[in-house]
Amino acid sequence: MHRLELRKYQAETAKDAPVRFVASTSGADRYGDIIDQRGWNLEAYRRNPVVLLNHRADSLPIGRGDVREEQGQLMIDVEFDSEDPQAQQIERKARAGYIHAVSVGFNPIEMISRADLPRDHFAFSAKGGKYFKSAELLEVSIVTIPANSEATLSKSMECAGLRAMIRSVMAEEMRHILEAEDLGDRIVITYA
């Protein structure tokens, strides 16, 4: 019997697979603002699906994104520009787990102070912040620190990466798996 430990954060995905992020949620960001995920206007973004680095609109994009609303979150699959050295570096860091976050750049369409919302509204807060009932998505940026702490690599991305690594590296040994145990920061696989 043999044991193999795979650290989740070291899992790499197939090189041609897009990197999936949660781009936005209905959670309050670090400024106290909330964007209603049902209120996204994505038409303009889909015509110009740029992915920037740190909201630098004065620099060339490092990739393009495919956005959609999924389970109450704005999701994005990022395809990095494989011909751009900077994009290659950022992609490598994202796939290796050194960069986990994205941030949305948007134009507000309808907004109100959270303190002015009815007290029974999910976004009400006497402390302030804004509630964006609708917003036009302009760009999505790879960032080191996001305003919305939930705008990070998708959990399905981590799982997809782990599956890809298992298939590519351990194909022969994995035919005889006896047990797989998820310990949170790693997976322990026992095989014959």
Q: Which percent bin holds the helix content? A: 10-25%
User: Mean pLDDT, nearest integer?
Assistant: 84
Distance between the termini: 5 Å
Which residue ranges are poorly predicted, with pLDDT under 50 across at least 5 consecutive positions? 8-13, 156-165
**Order of H and E elements:** EEEEHEEEHEEHEE
Structure class: alpha/beta
Radius of gyration, CA atoms, in whole angstroms: 19 Å
Number of strands: 11
Number of helices: 3
Your description of this structure?
With 192 residues, the chain is of the alpha/beta class. Helix content is 17%, strand content 39%. The protein contains three helices and eleven strands; from the N terminus they run ββββαβββαββαββ. The strands form two sheets. Strands 2, 3, 4, 5, 6, 7, 8 and 9 form an eight-stranded mixed beta sheet that branches. Strands 1-11-10 form a three-stranded antiparallel beta sheet, with no helix packed on it. A hairpin with a 2-residue loop joins strand 6 and strand 7 (73-80).
Topology:
Blueprint: E1 2-7, E2 19-24, E3 34-35, E4 40-41, H1 43-47, E5 50-53, E6 63-70, E7 73-80, H2 85-96, E8 101-113, E9 130-143, H3 155-170, E10 177-182, E11 186-191
Parallel strand pairs: 3-9, 4-9, 5-9
Antiparallel strand pairs: 1-11, 2-7, 5-6, 6-7, 8-9, 10-11
Summarize the structure.
With 192 residues, the chain is α/β, with parallel strands linked by helices. The chain has helices at 43-47, 85-96, 155-170, and strands at residues 2-7, 19-24, 34-35, 40-41, 50-53, 63-70, 73-80, 101-113, 130-143, 177-182, 186-191.
